[in-house]
Amino acid sequence: MNDWQAELQLDGQGAVYEQIKRVLGNQITSGAWPAGERVPGEEELARHFGTARMTVHRALRELTDSGHIIRRRRAGSFVAAPPAPSAVLEIADMARVIPQRGQRYRYECLSNDTVSAPDDIALRLGIQEGADVQYVLCRHLGDGDAVELEERWINLQVLPEAAAQNFRTLSPGAWLLSVAGWTEAEHVISAENADEVTAEQLDIEAGTACLILERRTFQDDAVVTFARLTHPGNRHRFTERFKPR
């Protein structure tokens, strides 16, 4: 008997598909099956549990819907990367978040320049059109895959030292967390399909569904920074655990 067969035992509680879903889910959430691990096939599982293949199919489909596994045509089912613990309301450093997912982190700066603020950016930062801002374009990778494309505009009227900062080695988000106190943050979340430029920057197919987080942080009434953070939908998710007020 293979190791996984010894580990997968139904508990007799509820419908069979629910038991299968539960025992497979426990293997994933406990870390016994790490991200990228191949999940036994429907036929193998049906034979092991002594049930119909459609029962196993339902359990795997619901695990796919909940984000625990990824099903690839002809290749089978694989354990998905765990949800990123970067909370929607928390301003988190991806250099910490990605390793917490069990992935190797790498940062790449694509550009770092002082530029004149475009009209829409000036409006978001609450500054005059054409005023100087620091613009940084960078990406954060987990196990070699781009998890987040970060477009960052920093208000030089609030943080003039940003113009001299070497963002080639330190991400603007990490730097801001270390030097800039903030009193308020605003998050706007949306979904878009990647255009050709974004797809190339993230190394994904054009048209891929992406999660977009737009963030402004404030020092009292002044906007410190505006960031547009783009995440391939199959590589990143936002999670938040909270209690009722």
What's the quick description here?
This protein has 245 residues and is α+β, with helices and mostly antiparallel strands. The chain folds into two domains: 3-79, Winged helix-like DNA-binding domain superfamily/Winged helix DNA-binding domain (Arc Repressor Mutant, subunit A), CATH 1.10.10.10; 94-232, Chorismate lyase, CATH 3.40.1410. 28% of the residues lie in helices and 31% in strands.
Number of helices: 8
Return the domain count: 2
As a percent range, the share of helical residues equals: 25-40%
Overall, the morphology is elongated
Structural category is alpha+beta
Tell me the strand percentage band: 25-35%
Give, in spatial order, the strands making up the sheet with the most strands. Answer: 4-5-6-9-8-7
CATH architecture field of the largest domain? 3-Layer(aba) Sandwich
Number of strands: 9
Quickly list its features.
Arc Repressor Mutant, subunit A, Chorismate lyase, 2 domains, 6-stranded antiparallel beta sheet, 3-stranded antiparallel beta sheet, 28% helix
Describe the structure.
This protein is α+β, with helices and mostly antiparallel strands and 245 residues long. It has 2 domains: 3-79, Arc Repressor Mutant, subunit A (Orthogonal Bundle), CATH 1.10.10.10; 94-232, Chorismate lyase, CATH 3.40.1410. 28% of the residues lie in helices and 31% in strands. It is built from 8 helices and 9 strands. Helix 2 (16-29) packs across helix 4 (53-65) and helix 3 (42-49) crosses helix 4 (53-65). The termini are far apart.
